[in-house]
Design a protein that fits this description.
The protein is α/β, with parallel strands linked by helices and 642 residues long. The chain has 3 domains: 3-112, Chitobiase, domain 2, CATH 3.30.379.10; 118-454, Glycosidases (TIM Barrel, Alpha-Beta Barrel), CATH 3.20.20; 474-517 and 555-631, Alpha-d-glucuronidase, C-terminal Domain (Alpha-Beta Complex), CATH 3.90.1330. It contains 21 helices and 19 strands. Strands 6-11-12-13-14-15-16-17 form an 8-stranded parallel beta barrel. Strand 1 (27-30), helix 2 (34-43) and strand 2 (53-57) form a beta-alpha-beta unit. The chain is globular, with a radius of gyration of 25 Å. It starts with 19 loop residues before the first helix and ends in an 11-residue tail after the last helix. Bound molecules: 4-O-methyl-alpha-D-glucopyranuronic acid. This is Alpha-glucuronidase.
């Protein structure tokens, strides 16, 4: 087995013990190429005959494609067959995941193919430390694994990361923040060597490197007077710059662009639309097989809060749906799963169904910007499972509509990779869902527990802590889908009115009589009309709208009775008391793991759970007090509200 884990760094889901089932066995590896060599290095000594595990590249890609594999066990021999080297890599890690089960009894032929062709993590890492956002924007796991103080880091950590990602099936990564500041912009040109170095380290793990680029690069870096996508000089600049990128990195993945969004430049500045913007980059990349990921996260962040007609939820659809069919084949529209911004609970973005003639990628957020910032234990598997399985159109769910799954990474140079050690499970789950969105989130959690913490830990306690932790987090934070009651700027902790009268959008409209945003066609912003049937009708209807999204779509009186039978105000009180109490129970449950995990990890989790208990109580008291003072309605159970 590979023994090059970094000293002092938690091995996450690839500790030497994870290879126990393979370690003592005779293994044969057949095939050539870099990725096959990676498998050989993982396996250690190989044999030519009498193998108990045979890993073979057949060279016949056929139905297995480049990444699929078959697994079976017959006559005491476990066999992985792949058409191409990448499939062998994924097949090998599947055997690691199965452990002893891969070597027990007979196994009929199972075929494993990735559901998503690209399974990509985006890093919001800055090259130079940003005075407001730090080295990693929305990063809660220490510094960047790529850059420190403006310079590239030692890449040993990146190599270990590549290995972890390959073991979950991730095959692409964007290494820098979509908010591309001056130093990072130069990764495209005179600092390209740094990108090539990362690509070199990740290549043996089947991971292609992508780069976030600034739409105004022709001006910033090329000295051109304009970045107008229809200008011939601009087109030529992108073509030549991209040619040089491929000269240095022949398997470069492509560009990611955040344009006309939160202050980033874009095609609107030149009177052009987003298809014009994306296509100039797509054309530059096409000769080399590259792709451009164009983000749909475009909205007006300089609103007048008095203007009731502007609705941030509407923006992406309004901008992009009319452009369906206008994007090049190698342009991928990257759409956040919800219409606002990675909130704990949002409806699915209607853009995902609105653009059948466009390649759509769905974007999740593994970094827990709005879900507890890796100070709170919040296993996001159940949320992603709901998102991916949501039947947005009559014949397809979100996973079926998306061509790719992308997420913002939660990794930094922290010893446990993810700040909160239990947040590793989210990173692991992302890769597994991108490979197979139909997986059960609790089985994925089991896999992670087995691999990362070993088979002997108190699994029941870990499940009791994590299984419902997303819903627990939801219960003590913003109620009923309303979202965004966080402290402005850093987004941690409660602040009910923090964003209410700001240019970024208004999210709850609470007054003495009621709360929620009217997004109906009948009396509100009309956002419900962006959905296909039946959702356009379901969300429009006060009676049919699901409780958990009620305040996202409707403004209702505090006495409105939910499907659950509770009133809105009593629901707010009950869930906040219950949620905060539940965190105390989570903290208590962790005691059962004492002595079963290493002391350092134990101490880190305890410290995080203590903070979660404190923070949940703060949320409970602020939310309950706010709504009690607004509504004047007492808690029917007479609990303490301030
Ligand atoms: C990278 C949210 C975050 C920003 C982030 C942005 C985005 O608004 O708060 O930090 O910017 O999303 O997805 O581009």
């Amino acid at each position: 087995m590979s023994t090059d884990e970094l000293a002092g760094v938690h091995p996450a889901w690839l500790p030497p013990a994870a290879f126990r089932a393979i370690a003592a066995r005779r293994v044969a590896v057949h095939g050539t190429g870099t990725l096959v060599d990676t498998v050989r290095a993982e396996v250690g000594a190989t044999v030519d005959e009498d193998a108990e595990l045979v890993l073979r590249v057949t060279g016949e890609v056929g139905a297995l494609g480049e990444e699929g594999f078959e697994l079976y066990r017959r006559d005491g021999v476990t066999v992985v067959l792949a058409g191409a080297p990448a499939g062998l890599l994924y097949g090998f890690f599947h055997v690691v995941r199965l452990g002893e089960a891969a070597f027990t009894g007979e196994r009929p032929v199972e075929r494993h193919l990735p559901a998503m062709r690209r399974r990509m993590l985006d890093h919001w890492d800055n090259v130079a430390v940003n005075p407001v956002m730090g080295q990693v924007e929305r990063g809660y796991s220490g510094g960047s694994i790529f850059w420190r103080d403006g310079a590239q880091c030692d890449l040993a950590r990146v190599r270990a990361y590549g290995r972890l990602l390959a073991a979950t099936g991730v095959n692409a990564i964007t290494i820098n923040n979509v908010n591309v500041q001056a130093a990072a912009a130069r990764l495209l040109t005179d600092r390209l060597g740094e990108v090539a170095a990362v690509a070199g380290v990740l290549r043996p793990y089947g991971i292609r490197v992508h780069l976030s680029v600034n739409f105004a690069a022709p001006v910033m870096l090329g000295g051109l007077p304009t970045a107008d996508p229809l200008d011939e000089g601009v087109r030529a600049w992108w073509a030549e710059t991209t040619r040089r990128v491929y000269e240095a990195i022949p398997d470069f993945g492509g560009y990611v662009v955040k344009a006309d969004s939160e202050g980033q430049p874009g095609p609107f500045g030149y009177g052009r639309d987003h298809a014009d913007g994306a296509n100039v980059l797509a054309d530059a990349l096409a000769p080399f097989g590259g792709v451009v990921h164009w983000r749909a996260f475009v909205y007006n962040h300089r609103q007048d809060w008095r203007d009731r007609s502007t609705d941030r939820a509407r923006a992406a659809y309004d901008h992009f749906a009319p452009l369906d069919g206008k994007f090049r084949d190698n342009a991928i529209l990257q759409v956040k799963y919800g219409p606002i911004d990675f909130q704990t609970r949002e409806p699915i973005s209607p853009v995902i169904a609105a653009m059948p003639a466009t390649n759509v990628a769905v974007e999740l957020q593994v970094t827990q910007e709005y879900t507890g910032q890796q100070r709170h234990a919040c296993y996001l598997g159940p949320m992603w499972s709901e998102v991916l399985g949501f039947p947005l159109t009559p014949d397809r769910d979100v996973a079926g509509l998306a061509k790719e799954l992308i997420a913002v990474s939660n990794v930094g140079d922290d010893r446990f990779w993810t700040g909160h050690p239990l947040a590793q499970a989210n990173l692991y789950a992302f890769g597994r869902f991108a490979w197979d969105p139909s997986l059960d989130p609790l089985s994925i959690l089991d896999e992670w527990i087995d691999l990362a913490l070993g088979p002997d830990v108190d699994r029941a306690a870990l499940h009791a802590i994590l299984d419902d932790s997303w819903r627990t987090y939801e219960s003590y934070t913003a109620p009923l889908g309303v979202g965004f009651m966080v402290r402005p700027g850093h987004h941690y902790g409660p602040d009910v009115d923090g964003y209410e009268y700001t240019p970024w959008g208004t999210y709850h409209f609470a007054d003495r009589d009621g709360v929620g945003v009217d997004r109906t066609r009948a009396t509100g912003t009309g956002f419900t009309g962006q959905y296909p049937r039946p959702w356009s009708d379901v969300y429009e209807s006060l009676e049919r709208c699901p409780d958990e999204l009620l305040l996202f779509f409707h403004h209702v009186p505090y006495g409105h009775v939910l499907h659950s039978g509770s009133t809105v105000i009593q629901h707010i009180y009950d869930t906040h008391f219950a949620g905060a109490e539940r965190t105390v129970e989570m903290r208590r449950l962790w005691e059962r793991l004492a002595g079963q995990v290493d002391a350092d990890l134990d101490a880190r989790v305890r410290e995080r759970l203590d903070e979660q208990v404190r923070s949940a109580a703060e949320w409970r008291d602020q939310i309950n007090t706010y709504f009690y003072r607004k509504s004047g309605v007492p808690d029917e159970k007479g609990r303490t509200i301030y």
